[in-house]
Amino acid sequence: MDLYKAYLHIKCDDQSSKIQTITTHKGTYRMNRLSFGIKTAPAEFNRIMDQILREMPKCEYYFDDIVVHGETKEECAENLDDCLRQLQKFDLHLNQRKCVFFKEQIDFLGHVVKYNAISKSPKKVAAIMEMPRPSNIEALRRFLGMVTYYSRFIKNASTLTAPLRNLLKNNTRFEWTAKHEAAFIRLKQEVASDTVLMPFDPQLPVQLACDASPHGVAGILSHIVNGEERPIAFASRSLTPAEQGYSQLDWEALAIIFAVDHFYQYLFARPFSLVTDNKPLVRIFHENAKIPKMTSARLQRYAAFLSGFNYTVNFRKGEENSNVDCLSRAPLKGPVNQTDSAINKDVVTAVWS
């Protein structure tokens, strides 16, 4: 469902209305409703929408787009009725031409969402496929921005984006070569692939597989359905120059910390299975073991951070961990959060939680 002229539903008090005064050649006008173009309007509108719909667990929203769902048609109809009554209570109007009801799949925020599956929007994929070869930095940034939006679907995103991202570095001449053309074409092929992710379901078992290489760290969040791993999302990043000097053990530990931190919203306050192909870490990070005193200070900090989670750690041979191993050897390049520094700030809270 789509709200009709969303911001104009929000009434402004006298002080806020005065701030929105504009002067034109036809006179001075003052807006009595939240005006489009105000810098704080999106945040204010989202705050109000959250207050209106927060008590409705089967109702999702993004600005003026609202999605109501249910496991059966009857449940969906009941949830829809509740949502419409809530919108009516606060005098919010819908744009009838943009509303659709009782669909088995929808196109929402660039994704096709249906039962137990999330895939890329064919319209967005077509738009990416039609993008011409970048001729300057701005065009390259636009292309990479579109591709990065779907990076959670691309296992080897970093391998393909690295040559293109190198062109964005300071003091680098923009010169398109054969390797850039190959990366550009391959990225389009990956975007056009039929990779399907599973929506997160709090009722299903969760597994986090982690791995590291000299190039980067990675993690794959999955559900276990009938003994089969169903991916929810992929994540990876390259190592910083300082991290490249770590030992193999520290790399593997860093991969775990990176993945747990990245998927924090899915893992905190719920049990999950942690999978690694490094046997020593199974002992060091064992859920029932005390933090070993003889380990390095870095690993002790990592263990303290993990002590705030409810997990079991399992060993899996490297050859059986090939899916996440591929990600770590092809990390997604981009801004890096210094995991070590973040843990230093939160380690006390993690230990005592």
Characterise this structure.
The protein has 353 residues and is α+β, with helices and mostly antiparallel strands. The chain has 3 domains: 6-103, no CATH class; 122-191, Alpha-Beta Plaits (2-Layer Sandwich); 206-352, Nucleotidyltransferase, domain 5 (2-Layer Sandwich). It is built from 13 helices and 12 strands. It has helices at residues 14-19, 41-53, 73-89, 122-129, 137-149, 157-166, 178-191, 248-262, 264-267, 279-284, 297-306, 322-328, 339-352, and strands spanning 22-24, 27-29, 59-62, 65-68, 105-108, 111-114, 117-120, 206-212, 216-225, 228-238, 272-276, 311-315. The strands form 4 sheets. The protein has a 5-stranded mixed β-sheet. A 3-stranded antiparallel β-sheet has the order 5-6-7. A hairpin with a 2-residue loop joins strand 3 (59-62) and strand 4. Helix 6 packs antiparallel against helix 7. The longest helix is centred in the N-terminal third of the chain and has 17 residues, at 73-89. It is globular, with a radius of gyration of 24 Å. It starts with 13 loop residues before the first helix and ends with a helix. InterPro entries: DNA/RNA_pol_sf (IPR043502), Retrovirus_Pol_polyprotein (IPR050951), Rev_trsase/Diguanyl_cyclase (IPR043128), RT_dom (IPR000477), RT_RNaseH_2 (IPR041577). GO terms for molecular function: endonuclease activity; RNA-directed DNA polymerase activity. Residues 1-113 form the Reverse transcriptase domain. It comes from Nesidiocoris tenuis. Keywords: Endonuclease, Hydrolase, Multifunctional enzyme, Nuclease, Nucleotidyltransferase, RNA-directed DNA polymerase, Transferase.
